């Protein structure tokens, strides 16, 4: 009896397909029998993954927020320092112009502006804490 290679290869392929079908169906039967365990495992995995992503995003946004708060605070402190130097210089110039009589009207206005700037900057510094 003579068998051809075609018949032999078709038989081997058929046997391999039947074996794969049997193995895959037993996995499906196991998964169907323990469906709640499989679902719980996948659910907990994805929940842990999503919680990790949420925590990473929250930490990132919190660090950006703290950086902006720090930047704004330092900017206000810088502006207050400039305002202090300005009201001292304006006050001295105003007193000089008023006392010497070079321009008493302008000197008075510089002194008043210096006082207003001093009040605003010191109140801002007090609010800043």
Write the layout of secondary structure elements.
Elements: H1 5-33, H2 35-100, H3 104-128
Helix pairs in contact: 2-3
What would you note in describing this structure?
The chain is mainly α and 129 residues long. The chain has one domain. It contains 3 helices and no strands. It has helices at residues 5-33, 35-100, 104-128. Helix 2 (35-100) runs antiparallel to helix 3 (104-128). The protein starts with a helix and ends with a helix.
Mean pLDDT: 83
Number of domains: 1
Structural class, please? mainly alpha
Q: Report on the biggest sheet.
A: none
**Beta-strand percent range:** under 5%
Considering DSSP H and I runs of 4 or more, what fraction of the residues is helical? over 70%
First CA to last CA: what distance?
Answer: 103 Å
* Radius of gyration, whole Å: 41 Å
Q: What order do the helices and strands follow?
A: HHH
Total number of beta strands: 0
Overall geometry: rod-shaped
Tally of helical runs: 3
Pick out the low-confidence regions: none
List keywords for this structure.
rod-shaped, 129 residues, 0% strand, mainly alpha
Short description:
By secondary structure, the chain is mainly α. It has helices at 5-33, 35-100, 104-128. The radius of gyration is 41 Å and the shape is rod-shaped.
């Amino acid at each position: 009896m003579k068998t051809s290679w075609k018949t032999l290869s078709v038989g081997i392929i058929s046997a391999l397909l039947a074996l794969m079908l049997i193995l895959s169906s037993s996995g499906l039967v196991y998964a169907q029998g323990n469906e709640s365990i499989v679902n719980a495992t996948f659910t907990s995995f994805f929940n842990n993954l999503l919680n990790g992503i949420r925590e990473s995003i929250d930490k990132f946004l919190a660090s950006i927020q703290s950086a902006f708060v720090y930047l704004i605070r330092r900017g206000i402190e810088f502006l207050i320092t400039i305002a202090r130097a300005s009201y001292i210089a304006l006050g001295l110039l105003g007193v000089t112009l008023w006392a010497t009589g070079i321009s008493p009207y302008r000197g008075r206005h510089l002194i008043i502006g210096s006082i207003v700037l001093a009040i605003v900057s010191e109140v801002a510094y007090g609010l800043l804490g």
